[in-house]
Amino acid sequence: MSTPQDPARKGRRRRAPRRFRVAVLVHPDLVPPEEITLRGEELEAAPWKTEHDVLRTLQELGHEAWPVPVGAELGPIRQAVTDQKPHVVFNLLEGFADEPSFGHNVVAYLELLKVPYTGCNSRGLFLARDKGIAKQILTYHRVPVPAHTVYPRGQRFRRPRRPTFPLIVKSLTMDASVGISQASVVENEAKLEERVRFIHESVGTHALVEPYIDGRELYVGVLGNQRLRVLPVWELILDGLPEQSRPIATERLKWNKAYQKRHGIDSGPARNLSPELAKRIDQLCRRAYRALRLNGCARIDLRLDAGGRIWLIEANPNPQLSLDEDLAQSARHAGLTYPALIQRLLQLGMSWDPTGSD
Fold first, then answer.
1. Which CATH number fits domain 127-144+214-351: 3.30.470.20, 3.40.50.10610, 3.30.830.10, 2.60.120.10?
2. How many Å apart are CA 296 and CA 51, to the nearest integer?
3. What three-state secondary structure class fits 183?
């Protein structure tokens, strides 16, 4: 811990950064091994890659960081907070008890314990998780989103009035492209009903249906609590897809390394964006981030259609934080190294007041 500066030395020497005790919340199946023997592509494909990258980086930054496995009980969190007294909790959980929709409840528990944490607050997580609610809020705040219809589980399928095909069918609450495939884009009512039933039965959530927007897939990272930093626009490069495939981020495309390699799937800085368009995207992402009451960091997913119009598809307040994922790559492109990004998330967590009194 640093000591107070002598006033006479003020301005001559920068105060040493503080070392934190950091409890890193992880799923029990994603605790990285103490001895890493994997290398190269095997390491990149490891399911605990993000947890490994974050823990290792925190330790390399000089922080005392350790994993706290959290499955279906909150006890490990309470024990870690009581016994080890972390300065901050680094939240890497995608849900609770293997239910993604319960992720905001874990953060609410951290707020009740009054312990600082990284990532988004419980209210923002709740609002952004339900894509239907999020789109209603964004529409009110004049953020362009596709019109949508929610088909709840357990209710009889009702044919839409005057549908405009093609439509895309996805889970109302799941992220990471779960349940999305080329078959998600439907051209008629029979296929629409079939795909809605698939989401209900195979994914186990309500279904969200909206017009399919043919265009480019863009991602924008946003960092901050009150003062925001919008990272460079990132693009999913889909030029190598089979000719009959639609350019969408399917579950296989997103997570199958062999498929990515076979079709040259990559991501990088968005190509050929005019300064005016980049500015509009920046403003839109800031408005969406604030409208959904997000903080810490988030990834905003956009589509850019052939007419140059931007559509916000969803806001992900719990983005992947692996050093080779889009958010970290975009940050690096903006001059923010991966260690600097992790340190920034710690600082944002330490400065956030969930009561709204800051």
1. 3.30.470.20
2. 18
3. helix
The Cα-based distances of 181 to 69, 185, 253, 275, 321 in angstroms read 32, 8, 9, 33, 24
What are 296-321's pLDDT values in tens digits?
999 999 999 999 999 999 999 999 99
- At residue 307, φ and ψ (nearest 5 deg) are -85, 5
Q: How far apart are CA 249 and CA 255, in angstroms?
A: 10
* pLDDT above 70 coverage of the chain, percent: 95
On whether the pTM is more than 0.85, the answer is yes
Instruction: Tell me if 16-119 shares its fold with 149-211.
Output: no
> DSSP letter at 5?
P
Q: Is 176 left (phi over 0), alpha (psi -120 to 50) or beta?
A: left
Cα(121)–Cα(65) distance, integer angstroms: 21
State CA 199 to chain mean position distance.
21
- Give 209's strand partners: 149, 169
Cβ–Cβ < 8 Å for 28, 92: no
Whether the pLDDT of residue 129 is over 90: the answer is yes
Q: What is the DSSP letter of 149?
A: E
Question: Omega before 166 cis (within 30°)?
Answer: yes
Tell me which residue of 349, 352, 348, 346 sits closest to 61, measured CA to CA: 346
Amino acid at 299: R
**Which tens digit of pLDDT belongs to each residue from 280-289?**
999 999 999 9
Element (H, E) at 349: helix 338-351
Handedness of CA 259, 180, 266, 53 (dihedral sign): negative
Which helix (H) or strand (E) is 314 found in, with range? strand 310-316
- Domain coordinates of the chain in residue numbers? 16-119, 127-144+214-351, 149-211
14 has pLDDT over 90: no
Confidence of residue 17 (pLDDT cuts 50, 70, 90): low
- Tokens found for residue 136: 């209603």
Give the integer Cα–Cα distance in Å for 285 and 317.
12
pLDDT of residue 40: 80
